[in-house]
Amino acid sequence: MTPPADDDPAAGHARALLRAATRYSGARCLALCLVSIAATGAGLLLPAALGRALDLLLAHAPATRWVLCCAGLVLLLGLLDAVQTVLTGTVDARTTAWLRRRLTRHVLGVGPRAADRFGSGDLVARLVGNAAEAGTTPAARAALVAALAGPVGGVVALGLIDWWLAAVFLAGAPVLALLLRAVSRDTSESASRYQRAQGRIAAALAEAVEGVRTVRAAGTEGRETARVLRPLPDLSRAGHRMWRVQGRAAARAVAVAPLLQLAVVAVAGVLLTRDRLSVGEVLAASRYAVLATGVGVLVGRLAGLARARAAARRLGEVGTEPATVYGTRGLPDGPGRLELRGVTARRGGRTVLDGVDLDVPGGTTLAVVGRSGAGKSLLAALAGRLADPDAGEVLLDGVPLRELPHDALRGAVGYAFARPALLGGTVGQAIGLGLPSPSPGLVREAARTALADDFVRRLPDGYDTPVADAPRSGGESQRLGLARAFAHGGRLLILDDALSSLDTVTERRITDALFGDGPGATRLLVAHRGATAACADAVAWLDGGRVRAVGRHEELWRLAEYRAVFGDGADPDSTDAEDRAVSGDDADPDSTDAEDRAVSGDDADPDSTDTDDGAVSGNDADPDSTDDDGGSRPVPDTRAGTSGESDVTGTKGRSGADAGDGALA
Asked: Are the CB atoms for 146 and 40 separated by under 8 Å?
């Protein structure tokens, strides 16, 4: 996908792409070119054979051989035309398939940047519609050679009959050349506008389909339809311009070509009266004049080629977005230590992360919190190299992620997302996605950890149920995404808001299972709930794209600005109070766990709040001790300057932080 040096990178990529596509179907293109030229040759021989047969018949001489020759040429033309049609369709289909595979692979290699730049709907339009149109280029070029051979051969044949005939025709040839040049230029421009309008409609339609529930709920179907179809006038104007260009070209051809043909026939008639030509030669000359002025065929070929080149340029624009390049350095054994050193990332001309430094020791959990737009999800993407920083570097066990091979990196890092895409034929395959040979036992164990096993087994075919036939809520989809991350394993697990759709009871049980088994994989957790952040070994507080502070949740909670991130001013030692604030529940805090129990089907005494929590998490500790982290492990002393300070460190990104930030960071 590397273009030659060119002022227009997209055009350079398009040319390189079309050259590669032509090489892919090279043998068939060559066969198509030869068949087309053979058909043109047969078409050039036919007027001469007809003229000779006519002269013999007028002279009452035997003409059977020439009549049979004419019949054979007609049959050959029909056969060659059929072969040409089959080869054209085959070359078009093969080239289109190759372009789609090549561009799809490139788009997936680029990653989210491609969708951010072009939009998912426009990308689909390029990979489907534009690829099909660009795929006609090799066959159109081969056919164009034959289309050019017809006029050239006609002029040569006129010269062989009599040089005056060729001279008369060539006198008007410059007019035809200018006509064809104008057709190619104007068609290319209007085709580009037409395809851009198609892309805008496709992008708007994809957005509308994705948000169809919102549209229905808001009752804005008519307004959304108008928005999707807003580019239609541009599409119509571009389409009409394209037809006007071809219509004008055809009109000019109708005006110019008959004049040239008439001039050739007139000169042939004069030569006939002077006995320089026979009647059969005059007939042949008239046919060759028609072939030499075959502008209609050339106009159609050039217009099709111009549209194909415009489509190829839109594919070339996708190619200008560079794919991710991986290294060859091996990943050493290690606990999964994650480091971000001076990481800066920009999106849409805005600096989202600015000089972020973080050090997450192996086997620990870091929760990343911050207001909307602080850069949490982008940081999660950078941590596993779903995106690359504009400055700085990210390291895993001391190795920069850029230097790792693709398989080593993806094997070491697992992801779970807020809105997981469940890919694969069945539910079991969706959970085992990316694993070389996932065993049923591994898939079921991961589903049990994510509390997904019960509802999966209730599906018609259990884990063999097709994903499309598996009705599920947002929380159930999220649990399947978590199960996929748990099945993946690896030394680094990144949860990008992957618990947001879960109720507080389910979230508590999953966090206990995830964090309560002692040292394991390093975990980076984008959190929006205080209860989730409280489960982590440390919290990185992002503010304005920088690390405001790093420390334990209960220590950061002393800061009013940190509490404002969660919209909660409650005591951080009351986990259930945080849960209540998240759910908007102002009821008596003593009844919180009773409600949780009602959700989970627990009929135990509602007054034993922390006992319930311990039961959920498997903790048999003293029920009178309120459990910040679900009772899954003791909370170390994290006061600044003590030996119990958190191992997860970070650098403050602003000099004007609160006085307490220095102690916490």
From this structure: yes
The half-sphere exposure of 493 on its side-chain side, counting CA atoms within 13 A, is 24
- Across 269-280, b (16+ Cβ under 10 Å) vs e yields eebeeeeebbeb
Q: DSSP for 459-521? A: STTGGGSBGGG----HHHHHHHHHHHHHHH--SEEEEESTTTTS-HHHHHHHHHHHHTTSS-S
pTM of the predicted model as reported, rounded to 2 decimal places: 0.68
DSSP calls for 208-232 = HHHTHHHHHHHT-HHHHHHHHTTTH
Phi, psi (deg, nearest 5) at residue 492:
-135, 125
Buried b (16+ CB within 10 A) or exposed e, 598-629: eebebeeebebbbbbbbbbbebeeebeeebbb
At 235, list the tokens: 């599409």
What six digits make up the tokens of 219?
């009752």
- d(C-alpha 271, C-alpha 259), whole Å: 18
**323 to each of 25, 105, 612, how far by Cα in Å?**
25, 9, 51
CB 197 within 8 A of CB 235: yes
For 381-426, how does the pLDDT look when each residue is reduced to its tens digit (9 = 90+)?
999 998 899 999 999 999 999 999 998 998 899 998 888 888 878 9
Secondary structure of residue 367 in the 3-state scheme:
strand
pLDDT tens digits, one per residue of 184-214:
666 777 778 888 888 888 888 888 887 777 7
The pairing of beta strand 538-543 with beta strand 546-551 = antiparallel
In angstroms, the CA 199 to CA 208 distance is 14
Take residue 622 and report the two structure tokens written for it.
């003293």
Helices and strands, number each (H, E), in the chain: 28, 11
Of the CA atoms within 13 Å of residue 180, those in its CB half-sphere come to 21
- The band of 592, judged by pLDDT with boundaries at 50, 70 and 90, is very low
Pick the closest to residue 51 from 224, 382, 272 (CA basis).
272
Q: CA 299 to CA 635: how far, in whole Å?
A: 80
Give me the helix-helix angle, 504-515 and 440-449, nearest 10°. Answer: 120
391-424: b (≥16 Cβ within 10 Å) or e: ebbbbbbebebbbbeeebbbbbbbbbbbebebeb
The neighbouring-strand residues paired with 550 are 540
Residue 209 has which token pair? 């389909």
CB atoms within 10 A of CB 571: 13
| Beta bridge mates, 399 | 396
d(CA 481, CA 76): 62
Identify the bridge partners of residue 369 per DSSP, sorted by sequence position.
541
Q: What pLDDT digit, counting tens, does each position of 305-326 carry?
A: 888 888 999 999 898 888 888 9
178 or 650: which leads in pLDDT:
178
Largest CA distance in the chain: 125
